[in-house]
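Notes, p. 3: input format for complexes.
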Amino acid sequence: MTVHRPHAILLDLDGTLIDTLDEFEHALADMLAGLGLPGPDRTHIAHTIGKGSEHLIRSVLTRALEQDGRASDEAAVQALYAPAMEGYLRAYEAQQHQLARLYPGVREGLQCLHRKGYPMAVVTNKPTRLAEPLLSATGLDAYIAFLYGGDSFARRKPDPLPLRKACERLQVAPAQALMIGDSANDAAAARAAGCPVVLMRYGFNHGQPVEQVPADGYFDSIAEIATQLPPRSA
Ligand SMILES: O=C(O)COP(=O)(O)O
Ligand SMILES: [Mg+2]
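Output follows (234 residues plus 2-phosphoglycolic acid):
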């Protein structure tokens, strides 16, 4: 790996640690049914995950209104936005994460990094109220010092602010942290923060091949990254 000896690790959530496509699909289907709109498209969801819930809800509403032959301009979407977001959050929370699946190598990888002494934080665009219970339900919270969600600060990824805040709290300079993500959004945030970044090949990346995104490395498993890193030096 081209990234040597980080002092801390920042982790993306959806598409990096956890395959949440099923739970996104289920919650969105529930939300759309509640509004009397046609169901979501799985591929469209997979390509839209990663930019936060506001973006996802607006994009899914636009598509559903179009499919229903209704006006789908900004005003039409805005008129449904508040009840849609409320229905979505309620449906997402009600699932209690039974549909969430860890990607292979995630648990072992985080265990290994933890054993090697790396402090770790999750920096996701998912709302904190959905992200924190997801981390606990999967047991990954045991390895994570804290989580910042898409609503933790005034700006979210691709803005560097959440990564900078996480580095501050971990007491490392951004250049000494390693961001592990799955998307161009993660890479852009990391680059702007001055933080090395590696990307997982199995994630969502807005539907694009991840190796087209400039990064310091591409991996198939977090366990593989963990094996390659030496024990954290003081
Ligand atoms: O868009 C989301 O809700 C999740 O995005 P993440 O990839 O930053 O976890
Ligand atoms: Mg992601």
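Residues 12-15, 49-53, 124-126, 157 surround 2-phosphoglycolic acid (ligand 1) (CB under 6 Å).
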